[in-house]
């Protein structure tokens, strides 16, 4: 018998706290999936995939799949750690009150352990599978989002989205580094597109969710500086985003098809931002902010999807033309054929 039980009356029932400690968790698999922010994760995986596929070197499909899985798990880890830290403000925001922790289905400790395990595991495996540069970039992304953005910037400054956007902009660089073992101008341009896309995207959301952020004490730009200043900042950042979105074509990393789509999408996001800036009343502001938020999702998807088309469809078309004896046809005239 151990010293802890020597002389104890073992006939008495266990104290209530000890009984509670062995009760099963209320969490289900879907709750842990929700902790990983699957919508954000899907965007991270897509942009990382584009960075991986437009790189000049090709990964073995199995290694590429493993690398993407690690990136997805790392993004999920950052989401879980963000929800663990933000549980107090999630409880008072309408948009987040039904998340697993504020709803009481997952405890803070469980979320912390889950996120930490996923984060460490994803970085370690990615390093072994695809190299330590890609793993280091993934570790930076997780730490920047979970620590720099969630624990500091989000509650400290109205520029939280501007600076914090760096975390969400790194995945194309991770994909490129996984494929090549290094970095180049092309993934940096993709980083800049996402970085300058983030403020108008999230500020548009915050315009019609400003009461939620104010109630939670989060210094989002509309709460701190007002609606008019937020609309002005959205327009200014859209004016930066539109030309940056065209740079992969201007620098020779994409063909005319990408340039055409990027020019149209940039003009569209500029026009919506201008209309939002000119909106005269709250109802028009909310309506246009929602339209801008929705289109901004299409904007990013369209640019990255067309970049894939530019790099992957054109070679197949060229091979088909060679097979039927039309190999001399200039694909650039059809808007296809970026830099190899």
From TrEMBL:
Q: Which locations, inside or outside the cell, does it occupy?
A: Cell membrane
Membrane topology type, per the record? Multi-pass membrane protein
Alphabetically sorted, this entry's keywords are:
Cell membrane, Heme biosynthesis, Membrane, Transferase, Transmembrane, Transmembrane helix
* Record Pfam families: UbiA
Q: Which GO terms describe its molecular function?
A: protoheme IX farnesyltransferase activity
Do you know which InterPro entries this protein is assigned to? Protohaem_IX_farnesylTrfase, UbiA_prenyltransferase, UbiA_prenylTrfase_CS, UbiA_sf
Return the broad EC class: transferase
Membrane-spanning regions, if any? 40-56, 62-85, 106-126, 132-149, 257-277, 297-321
- At the top level, the lineage of the source is Bacteria
Kindly indicate whether the keyword Nucleus belongs to this entry: no
Query: What pathway is this protein said to act in by its record?
Result: Porphyrin-containing compound metabolism; heme O biosynthesis; heme O from protoheme: step 1/1
| Enzyme Commission no | 2.5.1.141
Report the catalytic activity: heme b + (2E,6E)-farnesyl diphosphate + H2O = Fe(II)-heme o + diphosphate
* NCBIfam families given in the database record: cyoE_ctaB, PRK04375.1-2
The entry's function note states: Converts heme B (protoheme IX) to heme O by substitution of the vinyl group on carbon 2 of heme B porphyrin ring with a hydroxyethyl farnesyl side group.
Q: Which family does it belong to?
A: Belongs to the UbiA prenyltransferase family. Protoheme IX farnesyltransferase subfamily.
Please tell me what else the database record remarks about this protein: Carbon 2 of the heme B porphyrin ring is defined according to the Fischer nomenclature.
Name by which UniProt lists this protein? Protoheme IX farnesyltransferase
Q: Which gene encodes it?
A: ctaB
